[in-house]
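EI: anyone free to look at a 206-residue chain?
SC: sure, send it
EI:
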Amino acid sequence: MTGRINHCGKQKQCPAAKKITNQMHYLRHSHVYKDRAAQWRVENPERYQERVGTYFSREDIKDAARARTKQWARDNVEKKKEFDQQWRKANRARDRANKARYRAATRKATPSWLTEEQRSQIVAFYIEAERLTRETGIEHEVDHIHPLQADCACGLHVPWNLRVVPRDDNNRRPRKWTSEELTALEKSLIRNATQDHARVCLRLVV
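SC: here you go
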């Protein structure tokens, strides 16, 4: 038998061997590939932007980017604080808009029928978050079990929809409802349709 024999003992390369060969070829000639790609971007700016938009719109790419960002924030707490401060100074208008949007969502999600005792219970959650942050050195914040802003059903700003959690844990939570959660929500709404509103946690987005 003549010719190159790969690790499978066959003359023709198997997919695994071919992949390795291609990777090694790229490593040896990476400057050629990079120059070619740069030239293509210059000559086809619209197609390049279209490809970039398509790539970064993929949910798996978004999830991977979020994971990297959160891991960096956990590993660089002080740098993250400094970065946030600098961002707020450089983007005062956007920072105010974000805070105003959250305040508006909170007001809209706060039922008028809450008692003074229940409003005091809400304040207690924020006091507890400050205490834990101070004593543990880990940033804690008040989390809405059902988020105030979601795609189809938003949580209410009520004591039984609140809990104190580390900030990193809160940031890792998804903001979209899964099909299983929506099914459970539908059953819950039907089951409690005729009951008093004392334990209502959600408002539907219509």
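EI: The mean pLDDT is 76.
SC: 👍
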